[in-house]
Amino acid sequence: MKTLRELLAHVAVVQIIGSLDQPIAGLAYDSRQVVPGGLFVAIAGHHVDGHAYILQALARGARAIVVDARHQSEHTLEGATLIKVIDSRVALAPLAAAFYDYPATRLRTIGITGTKGKSTTTDLVSQMLDACGKTTGLISTVDFKIGNRRWANTTRQSTPEAPDVQALLTEMVANGCDTAVIEATSHALSASWNRLSGCYFDVAVFLNLSHEHLDYHGTFEQYRADKARLFAMLDEPAVRAPQSTSLSWAIVNADDPHHHFFLEAAPAKARQLTYGILKPAEVKGTIVRSGPTGSLVHVCTPWGEGELSVRLPGTFNISNALAALSVTLSQEVPLEQALAALSTTHAPRGRMEPVERGQPFEVIVDYAHSPGSFEQVMGMLRPLVTGRMIAVFGSAGERDRAKRSLQGAIAGRYCDLLILTDEDPRGEDREAIIEQIAAGARQAGLRPNEGYLCIPDRAQALRTALAKAQPGDLVLLLGKGHEGCVIYADHAIPWDEAGEAEQALRELGYGRTEA
């Protein structure tokens, strides 16, 4: 076990009252997870203030307490060391990295950021590197993975809290992984959350940038700067293993006008690599053909030329695939082997995921839940559909209310029929949420009971859509994607969007001949 003094080596401390020489048996930011001899980090959150649970942590055997100097004024703790820090949330990451003995120094660590496509690209990179002889771990919105073991991320955090990230990296090392692929969100990268400090990234990847999460970041400029921290972290001062001499890489999407900003954030020692479809790029893709089930792309790279097969629809997925190819090539995988690996990859759960039970129409599950993602997904799919496009979706309660009518209006422009339903109403009136979406649909010219239906019960809504589908149609099930429940005010119901669609198709008589 490390001592408290060792854990605090990279933490900005304001005051210490007590001994620093005792060994620390555990690290927790939730008082219920404190173990005897452990360290409790009190964090003032949006809904709960950890400083209110210090006594509970002490009762569970905490030997030391870290408090935020801005939120805690007490100067002594009986039987435990008190450490006041400038910002306890920011301190959590270096404490966690030290407690787990810097596992990232024993891994090749790849971080992927952007507004859209992070989960898909992160998963594609992990799949490709595994197919090319690496052993990867994965941290994404959808799943966690360590070697051959994969399980759902049920935390509803794309990037978990720092102790959870470091614990996962430690498991990866213990289970023989050589590479970690991490979905790096703007929240996790921001200086005020700092969840990814101590990951010592070797590869930083930028996908794209659009106006989102401004409720948290305040301005678009701050949002961009927070995402760009991933590239600055390629130069994070480390406790680096002496043998870690391989190149760091800054990989960016040349088609995005902000890509120069991210390259400028990277240290001079990082090797730069661009990819793209529209603009000049080192890894350049030219679309040969594209359809509702995937695309064929000719690629020209510094390592040679070849044909890239993408088993996902849409230009944006070609871009995601080029990002994954670029990462794989940067890890000294031959081009021919990388292209072969990419041709075997599949979408993560809930990301443009087809549901097939032999029905004469297409069904796709996707996580799209914002006006921008609606525009992207529906705009891409509409020209590929020979029949009608039917969309089933809702909008989250206690979240951005302004987007609801925009979702309805965008869907109304592209789709022939909307079925408006629950997403996660939480404490809001479910029917009021649906009416706000319906207002946008009416602005797009859709009429109630003809162009759109309001069916709050999501299972019923989904079944109605599938029952109405005809040969050549496309049914889009949007908003839930991989998520495992629908949240109401005082309860949540288990939910599996793709599984529910499969069951509904079976009820309609499709696929019954299968074993």
From TrEMBL:
Span of domain Mur ligase central: 112-327
GO terms of molecular function: ATP binding; magnesium ion binding; tetrahydrofolylpolyglutamate synthase activity
Cellular component, GO annotation: cytoplasm
Keywords noted in UniProt: ATP-binding, Cell cycle, Cell division, Cell shape, Cell wall biogenesis/degradation, Cytoplasm, Ligase, Magnesium, Nucleotide-binding, Peptidoglycan synthesis
Cofactor(s) needed by this chain: Mg(2+)
Entry-linked SUPFAM superfamilies: MurD-like peptide ligases, catalytic domain, MurD-like peptide ligases, peptide-binding domain, MurE/MurF N-terminal domain
Swiss-Prot/TrEMBL GO biological process terms: cell division; cell wall organization; peptidoglycan biosynthetic process; regulation of cell shape
Pfam families associated with the record: Mur_ligase, Mur_ligase_C, Mur_ligase_M
Residue numbers carrying N6-carboxylysine: 227
Positions with a binding annotation for UDP-N-acetyl-alpha-D-muramoyl-L-alanyl-D-glutamate: 31, 157-159, 185, 195
InterPro entries: Folylpolyglutamate_synth_CS (IPR018109), Mur-like_cat_sf (IPR036565), Mur_ligase_C (IPR004101), Mur_ligase_C_dom_sf (IPR036615), Mur_ligase_cen (IPR013221), Mur_ligase_N (IPR000713), MurE/MurF_N (IPR035911), UDP-N-AcMur-Glu-dNH2Pim_ligase (IPR005761)
Residue span(s) of domain Mur ligase C-terminal: 350-481
Assigned EC number: 6.3.2.-
Coiled-coil residue spans: none
Task performed by this protein: Catalyzes the addition of an amino acid to the nucleotide precursor UDP-N-acetylmuramoyl-L-alanyl-D-glutamate (UMAG) in the biosynthesis of bacterial cell-wall peptidoglycan.
Family label: Belongs to the MurCDEF family. MurE subfamily.
Record protein name field: UDP-N-acetylmuramyl-tripeptide synthetase
Chain's gene name: murE
